[in-house]
Structures are given as C-alpha cells and as structure tokens.
Amino acid sequence: MARRTLVVSALGLVVLLGAAACGKDHNTAAQPSKGSSDAHPAACGSSQLSWKMTLLPGKPHNTPTAMLSAAHKGSSPCAFDGYPGLEFWVGKGPSADARPKKSAPVHLVLKPGHSIEFPVFYDAIGSPSESCDILAENDPRISVTPPHRAAHDYGSPVQLTDTQGHHVRAQVCGPDDPLLGAPQLH
Prior knowledge:
The protein has helices at 2-23, 27-30; strands spanning 49-55, 66-72, 78-80, 85-89, 95-97, 99-100, 108-110, 115-121, 132-134, 141-145, 156-157, 160-161, 172-173, 179-180, 184-185. It is α+β, with helices and mostly antiparallel strands. The chain starts with a helix and ends with a strand.
C-alpha cells in the first residue's frame, strides 16, 4: 500500500508541475518588445518617401526604360512590403497602370537616408504599327503610391526627368502595361 501511495503521489506531482508549466505564457519571450530592433517597422508612407523617376538613355532590348526610386527621408526604418502603385494618366482620359514584371514577393526594410529603386519597363517610342495611349504632347501626369498605404495616403506626383534632372514628358506606347522590375536597396 505504501508503494501505491508513493506512485500516486509521484504522478500527482508530475501532473501538478506539468499544469504549472502549461500556465506560463511562453509567447512573451518570442514576441519582440516595442523597443526591440526585431520589431517589424510600420509600412512606409508617402510622407516618408521622396520619389523620382529617371528616363534612361537608349532603349536596348529587354532593358528598363526608366528607373523609379524612393529615398527615405523619415527618422525611423519603415517596411516596404510589395510593389508601389505607378500610374501614367492624362486628365480624365487614358491611363496606364504599372504592374510587377514577376510575382516575386518584396519584403524590405528601408532605413532612413537609404533608397530603393525599381526598373520600369515600357515602350516610350512606339512604332508605325502601334499607337501610343499616353502621348507626350498631352504632358501626362505620373503618380506613385507606396505599397500597403494608409487609407488617407493618396500618393505623390512624380516628375519624369532625364539623367541630368531636366523634365521630360512621358509617353507610353504599345499594347502592354508598364512593368516594374525587382527592387534594389541603395
């Protein structure tokens, strides 16, 4: 009988210790604190980014027509998760929205003072057999929005310039939408 009491007591102690261990919150150690460098930063917003778009010289096959870049002018890192929205438009008339060239996910942290670049692929010249939906003579507007923007973030206008920084009127030709290539941090 003493042996049985000892076994029951030992099992009871194991159950009690197991229950106590299950009651602990093990997730608190896995979750980064608010001040931790492991915390995922907030999404980049238009107010933190300074956008520019540069028309690249020449147009060899399969090379970008322009480079879209965003410099982080904020004071703390922000998350750049996805591709920006890029739209060429003329008043209430025609527009062209860029889409990712490949569906690879983008999950980057942009630090203050650093920038991110996206190559932009589109036909800016056209050919006799193709029309241009967005004509340079109409001085189209270009707007860009960061990925995962807040509801009140309407994006930013961006001006197309040449490599010397002079304004160039955009023109989008051909049947295909502009494409955004894979980003690069700088």
